[in-house]
Design goal:
Blueprint: H1 3-22, H2 25-36, E1 47-55, H3 61-71, E2 75-82, E3 87-93, E4 101-107, H4 114-124, H5 140-148, H6 157-166, H7 168-176, E5 182-186, H8 197-206, E6 219-220, E7 226-230, E8 235-239, E9 245-249, E10 252-258, H9 283-289, H10 295-298
Parallel strand pairs: 1-4, 5-10
Antiparallel strand pairs: 1-5, 2-3, 3-4, 6-7, 7-10, 8-9
Helix pairs in contact: 1-5, 6-7
Length: 300
């Protein structure tokens, strides 16, 4: 393993450590999977992808954030336009299959109302240069610190609520910053009776996991080869400026089933690897999964 790959693994380990602390449903699911005999250890789980949210303003957004993972050998892939939510997104494929895919989105701030833009710019306007350019990308601790420490001041509750009234994505990012939005359990590699999304969702229901119902609990790509579901975001007691508090949406966990591509359907099952399955993402699926942090789901 080269140094860059080792650093990438350390970055993901740091991300997952903090993420699991604030998203207890992850360990609930993994522990119940062990209890049920679906897996023997948490290390058996394949992390399909992780996702980050960013703000499309000068010195930030995808153009800045992607530098971290391009440095590790990730490749920038398909572009997605989420017109209603005013989001751009790309996914990035890893240099080795043991690392997860990455999905990065950004809010098109210039398309928001003047009032909403002014709140976002109030917090981001002091970022006069790209913060990633200051990082030592060969030092995982430097990156870990950057991903878990705010680039701007803690927002005021009233401003958070104003943002939320126009864009719940905007309010999520203004409070949570680069905190890991979600990680994804691959289900297609699990044992029989649990290796499809419908079967795994049944398991999730039995252990009390609340699922995102936007567009239906099961989100299926047009080609039928990428099937996804997700939990509803964990609620956090957030402390805003001047000590005000409010219960807001944090992060969630996603579940993905990638079916075997038609040209490999007759291959020996023991020889099937990631390259033989449906890759990439589907805009219609992702559009609804974004809503895992929306009040329409968290207040159900």
């Amino acid at each position: 393993m080269n140094h860059k790959t080792k650093v990438a693994f350390q970055v993901f380990e740091g991300l997952m450590t903090r993420y699991k602390e604030n998203v207890p449903v992850v360990d609930l699911v993994l522990n119940k999977m062990i209890e049920t005999g679906i897996i023997n250890s948490k290390q058996e789980i394949e992390n399909d992808h992780v996702a980050f949210r960013t703000l499309g303003v000068h010195n930030l957004g995808i153009k800045s954030f992607e530098k971290i993972f391009l440095h590790f050998g990730y490749k920038k892939r398909d572009f997605f336009d989420f017109e209603t939510k005013k989001l751009n997104a790309y996914w990035f494929s890893p240099p080795i299959p043991e690392l997860p895919r990455i999905f990065v989105s950004e809010l098109r701030v210039n398309e928001l109302s003047a009032d909403t833009r002014s709140i976002i710019l109030k917090y981001t306007q002091n970022i006069q240069e790209d913060p990633v350019d200051k990082l030592d990308l060969n030092n995982w601790e430097d990156i870990d610190h950057f991903l878990h420490h705010p680039l701007w001041e803690t927002p005021e509750l009233e401003e958070y609520e104003k943002l939320s009234s126009e864009s719940e994505y905007a309010s999520w990012v203004i409070y949570n910053r680069y905190y890991l939005n979600h990680y994804t359990i691959s289900v297609h590699g699990l044992k029989k009776d649990y290796n499809t999304i419908p079967e795994f969702n049944n398991f999730l229901h039995k252990i009390g996991v609340k699922l995102n119902t936007a567009g239906g609990e099961i989100k299926t790509s047009e080609d039928g080869l990428l099937i996804q579901s997700s939990s509803v975001a964990e609620m956090l007691t957030a402390t805003f400026a001047y000590g005000k508090t409010k219960s807001i949406a944090g992060s969630y966990v996603e579940f993905a089933e990638r079916k075997i591509l038609p040209q490999f359907i007759n291959m020996d099952a023991s020889k099937i690897t990631r390259e033989h399955r449906r890759d990439g993402f589907e805009a219609s699926n992702a559009d609804k999964i974004f809503e895992s942090t929306f009040v329409s789901q968290t207040l159900k």
